[in-house]
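Researcher: Here's the sequence for the chain we discussed earlier.
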Amino acid sequence: MSKKDKPHYFDPQKWKQQKLEAMTDAAVRQKNAAFVAAHRSDTDEQLIAYVRQSAQELGHTPYPREIFGGAMIYERFGTWSKVLNAAGLPYPTHKVSERGCRIYRQTMKEQVRVFDKLRAEKMETVQAASAERNAAVQAEKQARIERDARWGEAHGDMTDDEILEYLRTCAEALGHAPYSYEVEGGRYIAERFVSWSIALTEAKLPLPKGIQKPRREQKLAFLARKNGCQPGNPPETYTG
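Model: Thanks. This is the structure I predict for it:
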């Protein structure tokens, strides 16, 4: 298998790092833009004082990339050497990458907190929505149980043949063999015929997708009820 054909595996740590880097890059751009908006009217002396203060906080002379607004200050003075000469600072000799400088690392830490907070809020939202769906499903299930119980109390005197005819009528109205939840009294009928699949089979209706064929013990239990005996009796007692 070539590298091109190898399946792609999702790496959550790599995905998180890429998201954090993108968020940090955007946040650094925003902070630089905010600095420019807030200090574009500053005097040269004010900007030089800012560079001196930044050098003191860093413990070394900064490159433009190491301070917010560095690019703007660079453009104001024409070269970074002129900025440092005005500030009385030596030219830096250390090496630092854009993502290795302090402002980037500090911003990354901020974005980690933002990312974790957003993930926690999203998880809470997902869990709340899931709980709401589950509650709705349970409420609907309970409503069907109560509905079917009322139907069973009202139609308990119907014969099996009458119930099977009722099932055929429901199937005709729906346009397909029904699931038990689609039929008023479905739970009662399923219990009366031992299983929903037996009820449909007795009604000469096809089993809808997902409904298993009745098991042997279910058939025996139904025949036992139908013939007024208990499962385990001689086979001749299970004649229809």
